[in-house]
Design goal:
Layout: H1 32-40, E1 48-52, H2 59-70, E2 73-76, H3 85-88, E3 93-99, H4 106-119, E4 122-127, H5 139-147, E5 150-152, H6 158-171, H7 178-185, H8 192-209, H9 215-222
Parallel strand pairs: 1-4, 1-5, 2-3, 3-4
Helix pairs in contact: 1-2, 6-7, 6-8, 7-9
């Protein structure tokens, strides 16, 4: 089996695993439309759709949920030009993660979108910006990208941000109380990436100092 298309196992820097199971997805107003799109498959508006949002917004988690339901294989966008695209679509569904205009293989992506149309396959693309904004040289690809249905994941609301902090702490086997969660939520940027970085810093500092993760420690770090 081509290793680039094998099932993924996410291993984080400190050796703890982040669950991409459906029951561990934190739903809220910011991602409700994206979750609905994933769960309504195969009743999609087009063979290919795109999930767009900032780092850590949940695109990969949603893609994993869809891959489990659809039998899709998962491919990093930077490897589009290095794999057998018909083989990648062999299950009739494919996730292409992290489309970036700076490293996009235009011919491979154009061929893949056309193949999906011809074969009645489904494509789920993830990116940080709408693919329609990509400056591409192939005119027909630009047309395809403009036609892609796009669902955008927004910044989390207060409730989702707090729930995310609790989940990220649990992923690291950290016990956090309401006072600590509220303190962090009120002092970090309202984004998934900021929550992830805050919990990571707390964990690392607690280990360095051999101290529990508490509001007092958070106050020292995020004052």
């Amino acid at each position: 089996m081509d290793r680039t298309l094998a099932p993924r196992q996410l291993v984080l820097a400190l050796g703890h695993a982040e669950s991409f199971a459906r029951e561990d997805f934190l739903a809220g107003p910011s991602n409700a439309e994206a979750l609905t799109l994933v769960e309504r498959w195969p009743d999609w508006p087009a063979p290919a759709v795109a999930l767009v949002g900032p780092e850590g917004a949940g695109k990969s988690h949603l893609a994993a949920i869809w891959a489990e339901a659809s039998g899709a294989r998962v491919l990093a966008a930077r490897l589009l030009g290095e794999v057998d695209l018909p083989a990648a679509l062999a299950t009739g569904a494919l996730v292409v993660e992290d489309l970036e205009p700076s490293e996009l293989n235009e011919r491979a992506l154009f061929h893949l979108i056309n193949l999906a149309r011809e074969q009645g396959a489904s494509l789920l693309l993830t990116a940080r910006q709408p693919p329609a904004n990509f400056k591409v040289a192939i005119r027909d690809l630009a047309s395809r990208l403009r036609a892609l249905p796009v669902v955008t994941l927004e910044a989390p609301d207060d409730a989702l941000l707090r729930a995310l902090i609790v989940k990220l702490a649990a992923d690291r086997q950290l016990a956090v109380d309401e006072a600590l969660v509220n303190y962090l939520a009120n002092r970090i940027e309202r984004s998934f990436a900021a929550a992830r970085e805050a919990v990571k810093r707390l964990d690392q500092e607690a280990m360095r100092l051999h101290r529990p993760v508490t509001r007092a420690l958070a106050a020292e770090l995020f004052r």
